[in-house]
Amino acid sequence: MIFFVVREDHSFGFQYFLEDRSGTRRDVFRILGADDLMHDGRADPGTYVFAVDDMLPAERALLGSVWDQLRGHDGRVRLLNDPLLTLGRFAFLRALHASGRSRVQVVRATDRMESLRFPVFLREETRHSGNLSALLNSPDEVRRELRRLTLRGFHRRELLAVEFCDTADARGIYRKYSAYVVGERVVPRCLEFGRDWMVKHDPGAYDADRIAEEREYVRTNPHEAQLREIFAVASVQYGRIDYALRDGELQAWEINLNPTIGRHRPHTQDSADARRVRELRRDTNDIFYSRFLDAWQAVDTGQARPDPIALKVDRHLLDAVHAERAEARRGERHKQAVERIMSRRAVASAWRIVKPALRRGKALFSRGRPGEQL
Predict the structure, then answer these.
(1) Which CATH class is domain 105-163?
(2) Where are the domains of the chain?
């Protein structure tokens, strides 16, 4: 049995895979809420995949305690992604740069930025929300953008400033490679194309040559050795890495411990272009899913003694987890409320009027002297 440990509200990513592509092996998997694992005080033998991607400090400590207890049952339990060792986005990019495996530097938005090579962009440290800003070409532009994001409800401590690395080819096309690690195996997933530097899936970007290029990537696994090293740096045994190539060198962007696998919506809702591309990519997807399932079979512990394993849970730490999550939810609700307000046309129009006046007032104040009446 393979237990996929996730936040209760983040189970859909792996659930899509189970519904769509797990076939006869579906019964081998069980999605397990992290709260259930921490509350039950028991665990069944099997393989445990800790796929909680944006752990808060108390949550990391508590899941790390569960991991340590399970680790004492070698032979009955196999473990992937030690919560105390897996690197988040900030630590991952810093470690890659320090080891010479990445051109990209990153700092927290609360830190000084003189060491950065511009342009940079801003993004959240833990969430997979992509870029929150356009490319910014100076510290002044960063400060202005941070003020804008603060008005939207973000805290600077949540944000990172990341150097931009231009990986476009001679025709201005960007490529985003994605691959999984499952235990000891590296499994290429897909190759996406786009003219925007933050590449998102775009069916219109695929032609016959790119379909063939993607199939060759998934079939041949050309970057396996380098990816294995990078996953080791991040202490990740399950997850998906997104990366590009620059002058033939691999440039990693991030590792997602709980990515969405498979369909996002019913195929009947797809556009004609999306259906065309999906059909052209069918062989490539079949190669991936076949190897993906084989990799899972290799980490399955198989039949084990059914006796459950007793777990001791620190109740004070569990209370701290609930408090951290409640605070995080309040922050998210605040951001969503601000987004709804700022998106209203009347507010946007008023802001266009007020903003120049504020700039004029700031300029007038800066020309004044102490004690003068402005």
Answers:
(1) alpha beta
(2) 2-84+311-328, 105-163
